[in-house]
Amino acid sequence: MKKSSIQIGNRYEIQLGKNTTQVKVASFDEDYGTWLCETDSGKTLRVKDAVRFRKEVKPPKAKKSLREEIESMGITVTPRGHRATKTMRNLDDPTLNRKYHVKDNGTVVLEDDEPVKRMGPKPNGAMSVLAAAHKVLLEEGRPMRVIEIMETALARQYCVVGGKTPFNTFNGGIRTEISKKGNESRFVWVDKGLFAAR
Fold first, then answer.
1. Is the domain of 165 the same as that of 99?
2. Residue 22 domain-assigned?
3. 26 Cβ partners below 8 Å, 6+ apart?
4. Predicted structure pTM score
5. Highest mean pLDDT among 18-27, 71-80, 93-102, 104-113
6. Mean residue pLDDT across the chain
7. CB 9 within 8 A of CB 31
8. Residue 115 falls inside a structural domain
9. Any domain includes 43
10. What span, in angstroms and rounded, lies between the C-alpha atoms of 126 and 156?
11. How far apart are CA 69 and CA 86, in angstroms?
12. Containing domain of residue 93, as a range?
């Protein structure tokens, strides 16, 4: 670049050996004939040759926060979903990128990043996991381990279990029902890892 085109306060890309970096020109030192430049990390560099200045770099435009974007449309925000409270706290964060849609009444509804999976109707009349486990225990008429209960229920197609850990679904469901319902539970804890039906 030409020496006359380098302005104090502007940002430039400069050559540093084989690499380049971005700096802001802070001042010009008349005694040494060098530009005092500041890097983004706060270091100060002296640049003597104007040819090391490759090009001017325009500062990035400040991104609007989601709150500013929504308020500029003159509409209200209605949070929805299991992360809504966190979303409302972070609306002023310009890095927040949340999908939203505008309802007919002009209200903005914020969407979840990952919507909660809703359980639909059971396919082909399948039972819930606990109902299937109870049916297996009644049919077998003996105490069983959770792994046996699960394998039998799935083999007989009594239920459909989504997810990567069906064992945890059966085990957690049975244990939770026993601890919450006590004597009204459909299941009885017989021995370590063994359950039976009432």
1. no
2. yes
3. 8, 36, 37, 38, 44
4. 0.40
5. 18-27
6. 80
7. no
8. no
9. yes
10. 10
11. 18
12. 66-110
